[in-house]
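Pilot study result, target chain (161 residues):
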Amino acid sequence: MRALLLLSCIWFVSLDALAQNSSSLVSRSFPGSEGIKATITALDSALFAAFNAHDAVALGTWFTQDLEFYHDKGGLTGYDSTMASFRGLFARNAETGLHRELVPGSLEVYPIGDFGLLEVCEHRFCHTENGKEDCGIFKNIMVWRKEGPGYKVSRVISYDH
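Predicted structure:
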């Protein structure tokens, strides 16, 4: 647990350094950067198509069984708890039109060696409440682990709620 905490702290410090130097890093390209951005764009779209369809079974196929989902309000959950939360969210919002959109221009993608890819973005969640559309924009980080020929999300950090 201490190793995970230390790694998380190092990772957040690294992300903070990225944020402080974002103008140079976002404009910087590296070999294959367009390819991995296209890959993550397609994966993000497919994962959230399942979310927008309120299809918890399909959504669950996008996550690893050892998923760690960190939420600034809800804390840490694993795969089973996260999927139960999605099922509850979908049930509570069956008639509200709950959906998610990627905020245009917010997607950043970085390779993680041979392990996988890091997605950093902002996304907008909307639903109808009291006859009016209610939306919020939140920040999100996902670690996509390479598994065979594809990728699955192994870590999520959802924050700024």
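One observation from the pilot: The first helix runs from residue 2 to 20. A full batch analysis is planned for the follow-on phase.
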